[in-house]
Amino acid sequence: MDINALFTDEGLRNFTATVRDQHVRDAQQYGQIADIVRRRLEQTPIDGDRWLSKRLRAWKVARQLKAMQKASGEAASKAEALYATYVNEVLELPQRRAVAEAKRLERKNGRQAAVGAAVAGSLNRTVTALNTPQEQPTGQVPQARAAEFVAPESPFGQWPMVAGGERPTSTINDYFAKGEQG
């Protein structure tokens, strides 16, 4: 047998078909032999047999042949499973991977298009909002908030103000009174 032929579709198909057919024939023969042996042993008495001894002995011997028949049937099934697994895992794998890669790229492109559309929509809304003049009543100057002043009797007046104060704050120690302990 050429081992390299097993690694082709035709070569493995021929091998598994041959093995399967052989096991199917063996299973049929084991079944026929089991029936013949069981019938013959049921009809053959041995000295000292009781009334069910012949049938029990025939069943025990035929049971081994039936196990061989079952094993050959399973071997025939495994030969077919070998071919199916080879086709699925080796021969069709590159095609399945190509299809999966195409789907993955399609999903990626779809996500990129969706993100691009979302960004474009956001930019359009921003440009529209920036180019649209705000409606203001004519003749009035809008005020953001009313002016707030610190009263001179406020305890916060002892600390210098940062913006527009008498002197800028240079360290954190400027916020706390110096020399007072306790």
Write down the overall geometry. elongated
Portion of residues in helices? 55-70%
How far apart lie the N and C ends?
Answer: 103 Å
| Mean pLDDT across every amino acid position | 82
- DSSP E strands, number: 0
Radius of gyration: 48 Å
The portion of residues forming beta strands comes to: under 5%
Low-confidence segments, given as residue ranges, are none
- SSE order, one letter for each helix or strand: HHH
Structural class: mainly alpha
Specify the biggest β-sheet.
none
Distinct helical segment count: 3
3D structure, described in words:
By secondary structure, the protein is an all-alpha fold. The chain has three helices and no strands. Helix 1 runs antiparallel to helix 2 (53-91). The radius of gyration is 48 Å and the shape is elongated. The mean pLDDT is 82.
In brief:
About 60% of the residues lie in helices and about 0% in strands.
Describe the SSE topology:
Layout: H1 9-43, H2 53-91, H3 93-131
Helix pairs in contact: 1-2
Notable characteristics:
182 residues; mainly alpha; 3 helices; 0% strand; elongated
